[in-house]
TrEMBL record:
Coiled-coil positions: 9-36
Species in which this protein is naturally found: Paraglaciecola agarilytica NO2
Protein name, entry field: Diguanylate cyclase/phosphodiesterase
Domain EAL: 23-276
Length: 278
């Protein structure tokens, strides 16, 4: 038994070593990823459940390393967040999203795009100016850009968030609360902060059809949001049954693999062209 525990300790420390080496490697590679053009924004359509049209999409970051390796945001965003690299990367995301909106406008699709904001970006005092500049440079309507923030971001930086959201709202940019229901925050911010939309987390949508508790939670979120004049977006919709339930219960928008995976820009344009509604 003693021998076994020793080898499992060795195994464990080797695994830790590998993991930390991987993080250091990614940290270094992230430094040059923007200048090497290794980032790409994919777009995932959101379906308006009332009209059946695609009026909005979420921008999701992809990292294609020069050596061909593709790394998902769940792995590199936390590293970018810890090192502060998320600030320049997040700016790249915002300006690229504005460019895409502009290109879509020129092709006759007036589509909104939402971008995800990390906690670290909220503390960047140049963020507001940067957003304003990106909108101006790309000649888009401010209300075509949307920001997604998680509840955690709101709680940790309440004063900064309040200032930022008030100012972006003045610009005409709208704001969504992402992963709603998974945070530990009180709900009071919903009436205090200028918020437009709530995105119900995928974890509630997943077992919606079989789990009575998830059904109850979703109905409660929709009712609460609507009484506060907020729109509701359901994430992670994968089946027709989920879609029907959401539609029947007046959820406003739905996003998920049932409609489309996140797509590279060119494929997203094809998608818009082939959906009858557009
Ligand atoms: P998120 O903001 O909650 O984004 C939704 C995630 O769910 C995306 O994963 C999307 O591909 C995935 N998804 C969408 N529909 C379905 C579905 O029907 N089923 C399943 N199983 N998954 C679905 P992705 O693209 O891997 O992104 C993961 C997370 O990385 C995002 O979660 C977001 O927190 C973060 N992220 C992505 N891009 C950015 C970015 O530009 N900036 C920041 N700060 N974070 C980002
Ligand atoms: Ca999001
Ligand atoms: Ca989300
Ligand atoms: Ca989520």
């Amino acid at each position: 038994a003693k021998k076994a525990s020793k080898s499992s300790v060795q195994f464990y420390s080797q695994a830790l070593k590998d993991a930390s080496q991987r993080i250091i490697e990614l940290e270094n590679a992230l430094q040059t990823a923007i200048t090497n053009h290794e980032f790409e924004l994919f777009l995932q359509p959101m379906l308006d459940l009332t009209s059946g049209t695609i009026l909005k999409a979420e921008a999701l970051l992809r990292w294609n390393r020069l050596d061909g390796e593709r790394i998902g945001p769940d792995e590199f965003i936390p590293i970018a967040e810890q090192t502060g690299l998320i600030v320049p990367i997040g700016k790249w995301v915002i300006s690229r999203a504005c460019e895409m909106i502009s290109t879509l406008n020129h092709r006759g699709h007036s589509c909104k795009l939402s971008v995800n904001l990390s906690p670290r970006q909220i503390s960047d005092r140049h963020l507001l100016e940067f957003i304003r500049g990106s909108i101006q440079n790309s000649h888009i309507q401010p209300d075509q850009l949307e920001l997604e923030l998680t509840e955690g971001v709101l709680v940790d930086n309440y004063d900064k968030v309040q200032y930022l959201l008030t100012e972006v709202r003045k610009l005409g940019v709208s704001v969504s609360i992402d992963d709603f229901g998974t945070g530990y925050s009180s709900l009071s911010y919903l009436k205090k902060l200028p918020i437009d939309h709530i995105k119900i987390d995928r974890s509630f949508v997943q077992d919606l059809v079989s789990d009575e508790n998830d059904k109850a939670i979703i109905l409660a979120i929709i009712a609460m949001a609507h009484s506060l004049k907020l729109n509701v977006i359901a994430e992670g919709v994968e089946t027709e049954l989920q879609r029907n339930f959401l539609q029947l219960n007046h959820c406003n928008l739905a996003q998920g693999y049932l409609f489309s995976r996140p797509l590279p820009f060119a494929q997203f344009c094809d998608y818009l062209n082939t959906t009858v509604s557009n």
